[in-house]
Predict the 3D structure of the following.
Amino acid sequence: MTLDWIAIPIGYLLGAIPFGYIIPRLFGVNDIRKHGSGNIGATNVYRTAGSFPAVLVLICDIGKGALAVFVATLVTSGWINTEYLKLASGIAAVVGHMFPIYFRFKG
């Protein structure tokens, strides 16, 4: 059994981390979904919490996709094409970002 395929669910779970919800809470905004547009994206964080938290959210959101691809690079054993595994893991991170399990698949 190879660990190659574990990169895809890890990518999804990394992508599903709601930094747009976590970071504003650290800056005193109780629930970002109840402010502005109701979205947990960087734009609503900017409107609600300010520019510094919004930049942190943006960096973390980009970073979780990059981390998913990096994890895929680490776990590959050559059983499948590394490029396809990285692509699938990156796509899984995007899907996790759009439909996070932690918010009942509502991004």
Observations:
- The CA atoms of residues 69 and 90 lie 6 Å apart.
- The radius of gyration is 15 Å.
- Helices lie at 7-15, 19-26, 42-49, 51-75, 82-98.
- The chain has a mean pLDDT of 89.
